[in-house]
Each structure stands twice: as structure tokens, then as C-alpha cells.
Q: What sequence folds into this?
């Protein structure tokens, strides 16, 4: 007999249980489940992002935890008995210790990105062939292979930069915590507790949803570039975006609905991003929606602070 989940909560529980099982297999038993992505629907896209985000987080978790422990070990001192120069040295040693523990993370997640890039491009190509009926080959073309290489290498570099920023930010936070603690007359245990909280928040990125954001950007960009590759192979010059207009449709999708774009222009953008990955925010800025000073809903382009 076929049955369905009684409520949305039931479905959410089933999905979370499956994600937890996948994480246990991948993180603790070192068994990676290879499941083909389905990027032909919004639900399939969300599942792909969720799976990739969970796998990235699990891959980095051990190193993050080790970095936190190493940093705290170097900072477990009687701060009241130290000089300003000694405090600077101790915090510097803590940052070096943490950095050694996370140095392998970019390479480890790079392997994950490599597998995911191949799956994203393959899933996009399959959706173009089967869902859109494009007369293209099943195998990757030369551009597809370039897209896979670009996605893998550029994202790993971004992760390396992120861990550098985390290290620097924790150094600033640690110096402030120690200075404030000494000024307030806090003891060793109180300062240690504040340092531990900061280390877990900053070094390990606890509660930041960093990997989920990375996964979303990765899958979205990979799918967009792979779609352009499929369109070019099929001889398509232009394409129109059609959004499903209902109560869940975002303002950005409403804005893009019905607009026509050039395949060649999109491919030129990829060439530029491939040549200069650090300029990705300038070349492919994010469009966001918000509210202006007068309470009106507006959309704006986020070019990474410029």
C-alpha cells in the first residue's frame, strides 16, 4: 500500500534523518554515497545544495575542531601574569597552531568540489537533453570540461581565503577578549570560556551557514555555465527566462521573467571569470531585493562592496 507523509513536519523529519545518515557514513565511516543530482526542478536544486553543503561541512569538521583545540591549548595561560608582548606572542602562536590544522581543508574540499562539479555539469546536460529536448551529445564537450576545472579550482581558492580571514578575525577577537577581561578583572577560567566561544564561532564558523551558502553559489554558477554550454552546442543564440509566478516567486525571478539573454554574451562572461576568478563579483554580481529609506521594495546589484 502506498502512503504519503501526514504532515510537512513528517517530511522534514525524513529528509533530516537521511541527511544525518549520509553524514555519519561520510564523516565517521568514510563511505561517500554518490547520488546523481537532479537540477531539472527547484526541489532537485535545493536537494543538491543541501547534500553538497552537508558534505562540505562534514569534510571540514574534523580540521575545524582540531584548529579550535590547538588555538585554545596555546591560549590556556594565566593572562594576569603576562606582559603585553607575551600576550601578542601567545595569540600569534595560537593562530599558527590553528592554521596548521586547517591547512589541508582547501585540498580536502577541493576533491568534493571536483566530484560535485562533474555531477552538476552532467545533471545540467541531462536536463537539457531530456527536459528541453536539445539535440546534444551525452558526453561532455570541451567547454564542459573547462567549466568543471574552473569550478573546482576557483572555489577551493575561495575557501583558502576564507580560512585566512577567519584566522585573522579570531586574532582580533582574542586580543580584544583578553584586554577586556584583564580590564574587568576576570580570572583565567572566565577569559578561557570567552576565548573558547570565540574560537568556535570564528575559527570553526559555528552557526554561520558558510558551507550552505558556498554550496548554493557553486551549484547555481555551475548550472548556469553548463546551460550556456548546452545551448551553444545546440546552436541556440538566445534564451528566455520563464519564471513560475505564484506566491513563492521571488521579486528577482519576477523581474527576470520574460527577459531574453544572449548565449554568446554569457560565454564571454565565463571566459572572463575563468581568466580572473577573483573578479567574479564584478563580472557576475548578485541581484538582491530589499527596502529603501522610504519603505519601497527595490532591487540592487551587489558587487562585493563596490
A:
Amino acid at each position: 500500500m502506498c502512503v504519503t507523509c501526514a504532515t510537512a513536519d513528517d517530511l522534514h523529519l525524513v529528509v533530516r534523518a537521511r541527511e544525518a545518515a549520509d553524514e555519519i557514513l561520510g564523516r565517521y565511516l568514510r563511505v561517500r554515497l554518490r547520488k546523481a543530482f537532479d537540477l531539472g526542478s527547484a526541489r532537485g536544486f535545493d536537494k543538491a545544495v543541501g547534500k553538497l553543503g552537508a558534505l562540505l561541512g562534514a569534510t571540514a569538521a574534523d580540521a575545524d575542531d582540531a584548529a579550535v583545540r590547538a588555538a585554545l591549548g596555546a591560549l590556556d595561560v594565566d593572562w594576569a601574569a603576562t606582559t603585553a608582548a607575551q600576550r601578542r606572542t601567545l595569540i600569534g602562536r595560537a593562530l599558527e597552531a590553528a592554521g596548521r590544522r586547517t591547512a589541508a581543508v582547501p585540498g580536502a574540499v577541493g576533491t568534493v568540489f571536483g566530484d560535485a562539479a562533474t555531477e552538476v555539469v552532467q545533471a545540467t546536460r541531462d536536463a537539457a537533453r531530456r527536459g528541453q529536448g536539445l539535440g546534444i551529445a551525452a558526453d561532455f564537450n570541451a567547454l564542459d570540461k573547462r567549466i568543471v576545472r574552473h569550478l573546482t579550482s576557483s572555489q577551493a581558492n575561495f575557501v583558502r581565503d576564507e580560512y585566512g580571514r577567519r584566522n585573522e578575525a579570531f586574532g582580533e577577537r582574542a586580543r580584544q577578549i583578553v584586554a577586556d577581561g584583564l580590564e574587568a578583572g576576570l580570572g583565567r577560567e572566565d577569559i578561557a570560556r570567552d576565548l573558547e566561544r570565540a574560537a568556535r564561532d570564528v575559527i570553526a564558523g559555528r552557526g554561520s551557514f558558510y558551507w550552505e551558502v558556498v554550496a548554493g553559489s557553486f551549484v547555481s554558477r555551475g548550472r548556469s555555465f553548463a546551460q550556456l554550454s548546452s545551448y551553444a552546442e545546440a546552436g541556440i543564440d538566445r534564451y528566455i527566462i520563464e519564471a513560475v509566478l505564484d506566491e513563492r516567486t521571488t521579486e528577482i525571478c519576477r523581474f527576470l521573467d520574460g527577459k531574453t539573454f544572449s548565449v554568446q554574451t554569457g560565454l564571454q562572461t565565463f571566459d572572463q571569470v575563468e581568466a580572473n576568478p577573483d573578479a567574479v563579483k564584478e563580472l557576475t554580481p548578485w541581484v538582491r531585493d530589499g527596502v529603501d529609506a522610504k519603505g519601497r521594495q527595490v532591487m540592487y546589484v551587489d558587487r562585493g562592496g563596490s
